[in-house]
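Quick one - inputs below.
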Amino acid sequence: MRAKVRLLDLYSGRYAVFLNPKDAEEVKLHPDDLVRLESGKKTVFGSVVISTLVEKGEVGLSRDVFKLHSFSEGETVLVSPTGTPESVRYIKKKMQGKKLRKVEIESIVKDIVDRKLRDIEISSFVTSLEINGLDMDEIAALTIAMAETGDMLDIDRKPIMDVHSIGGVPGNKTNVLVVPIVAAAGLTIPKTSSRAITSAAGTADVVEVLTNVTLELDEIKRIVEKIGGCLVWGGALNLAPADDITIKAERALSVDPRGLMLASIMSKKYAMGSQYVLIDIPTGKGVKVESVDEARSLARDFIELGKRLGQYIEVAITYGGQPIGHTVGPALEAREAMEALITGRGPGSLIEKAVGLAGILLEMGGVASQGMGRRMAKEILESGKAYEKMREIIEEQGGNPDVKPDDIAIGDKTYTFTAPSGGYVTFIDNRAITGIARAAGAPEDKGAGIELYVKVGEKVKEGDPLFTVHAETEARLDHAIVFARRSEPIRIEGMVLQRIGNI
Amino acid sequence: MRAKVRLLDLYSGRYAVFLNPKDAEEVKLHPDDLVRLESGKKTVFGSVVISTLVEKGEVGLSRDVFKLHSFSEGETVLVSPTGTPESVRYIKKKMQGKKLRKVEIESIVKDIVDRKLRDIEISSFVTSLEINGLDMDEIAALTIAMAETGDMLDIDRKPIMDVHSIGGVPGNKTNVLVVPIVAAAGLTIPKTSSRAITSAAGTADVVEVLTNVTLELDEIKRIVEKIGGCLVWGGALNLAPADDITIKAERALSVDPRGLMLASIMSKKYAMGSQYVLIDIPTGKGVKVESVDEARSLARDFIELGKRLGQYIEVAITYGGQPIGHTVGPALEAREAMEALITGRGPGSLIEKAVGLAGILLEMGGVASQGMGRRMAKEILESGKAYEKMREIIEEQGGNPDVKPDDIAIGDKTYTFTAPSGGYVTFIDNRAITGIARAAGAPEDKGAGIELYVKVGEKVKEGDPLFTVHAETEARLDHAIVFARRSEPIRIEGMVLQRIGNI
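Output:
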């Protein structure tokens, strides 16, 4: 049938296509049937909703679909039922434990991006990958297919460096230091980051406190070609869009099949044209990768995958057993990072990690000789050159380069937890720290988070402050206090365990 | 937040909960988040849609949710975000190939019925079952959980018999004869049937030509206690509702995990209180179970499952290599079944199968001695007692008991295919026959279908009629003719295979 497009003001997280009951009956369409909309060169797939909110002869599109595919109100489209997509056969093949061919993987990825596959099929694919896995041929094909179904960046400066931290360790603002150090050394590093999904602050959330992170791809190209680096939000770009779709199923099921994880990370690097990639795998209790053995196995996979993609990859296994630095939460972390850039000094866990990672990149990129990268990175940081580069990044991305740490607004509703007894700090629980910061409102409330006064191994006296919770509202602060009392964020040797809930 | 319920006239195939953007922002809800609605004793789960179609302070519910849970317009409900359901952990456990405990299976089934699990989670469960399977303990637990989360029937007449045919063979109106024969012998058989899903006519579609099949459970109880049998549509009842939900994922993925198939069938029998169940497994090319070995293995599973459920199960492996009788499609099959009941005679494939199955049930139920069931069933059919019982069933269910075969309207747009050459009929393709009947409009168009003039082994001369397609509209007839020309519904020995498309 032909129908006129009508904009419906709704967001449902899926591609909904509203049809009038009379039209639906005529073309024998039922709720949630898959349909194809065609108009000129555009072809979009969606799920039928039957409703009198649209008149006969109209097709209602939700605001997101409408915008994404630039339909215009009143435009005539052809609506037709469509059968089971071909790629469902390949998902079934993976269910049967068989190896998928390159064209089969391409077909699945294309149908995901085209929205021909919906929650049911995507969840089945994710589940099949979790159970039956993918071999390195399949992962390489998946990575390339995911990159090529989205936008690709071609920066006219070589070599292109990149760095990526596997998530999970709270307070990890390290790359806010690494990128300006590496760019200040003359290398090219177009860094895209994610926002927090389950953490209290992603790198994009932290940088957003300082400058704009939502940029178009051609704007990024211009900036990086001019100053050598950027710190932007990858989610604003159409990089490997299949990943943004499959992540929904992975989150709902709390699974993260390794093949999909590797493809998800590397497809974005591939799309950005990265040639030398450093992968940081924080390892320790309460982060994604808990054991060094697991980290090593993952490292081998990254390196092997890099070879297939024509990328040179190195992996740094770092300590992730407690938060990095003393702050957790977007504004608090932005403040700590800026202080480190301005003064060249800061908490050992932050400075050492940043110059360690940056040093490896300087060696990979050939600007430091073997074994000299770390020292060179430290010099760049201490000399203020990294800060200068950070000012350029902030300015080019649309922020105020003169921003000072004290200018950054921190949540002013606070509560400080103190040590119930004296002793050594034996353990800081990453998950509890993240949970408290999120309960306080992070990452949405930029000023929410935690300031930590102690780290593992330090000695405290009874009554010493352990950490302060910052929130933007009293309600959120109360919420975080309740959460903190129920969990055990900091363990002090000799403390009566049963009383920990009362600190 | 508290909000006033507002009815939205839409059907989306899911539980959609519309919130105004302002409310959504306040309670930090995003599109497709899972929310709980509470009002008095009712608790309903649904997926967030953000839209200005509802005002601030309102919650919009789609018509199906509204009706199913009897909300009233303007009623105040409590809307709250809800985290990942507990049962997702058990789905993950099955992904890991572990055996599920009874309580874990109960939790999954309850969350499916409560709509706490949505497409993503249900698809993952189905996929995990397809890959990792279920053992008999798990299948029994699943069956009981599926039955007990729906309505259960308690008929005050024992023993309760039941019969179920595994689908796939076209023209299988057998149970329209079996039920009145068994009930006429004094046994109790509260038969529920499904509508066609992928076939041209389910038993419920066929019986609906003769009488009403959409009855309430207490009405069924009254009828069966009075006359011993019924022929109703199971889909109108709230029997094992989890099955109606999981089937969506199974269909989209075209999988049918055995454990789920067994539980799906037997949960409905269990809910109907059936004690003696005969399972008919048609076997042959183009039906669900193609080999006798597979049928035997399935039969053993049914019998074993019956033991765990306290049911006595027998299995009949029947011939399903070609259509049963001479008709395919609701009205054509209803006519053929009524003719057989009235005259006691009909096509061998129909009569033999019906008295064979009925005979086994008569022996199982103890009214015929061993080896005498078939003869007794035949006598009941030929004596007109089965027809008398059928008249009672038609009348009690609200139809006209005097309906005659010629009263039944058949699609009057017809086209007859003839033999392109003489020879023996060597093969009739079940899938092609079903496809043509569906292309002609079956099962929605009751009068659409196929009349077959030949069966496998019969000799035809060039130009002899092979089959007639019936449709209610010219468009549908054309559609079916095109479909028939493209497929190879009937193969005649000696025919030039390349020309089959032109018959």
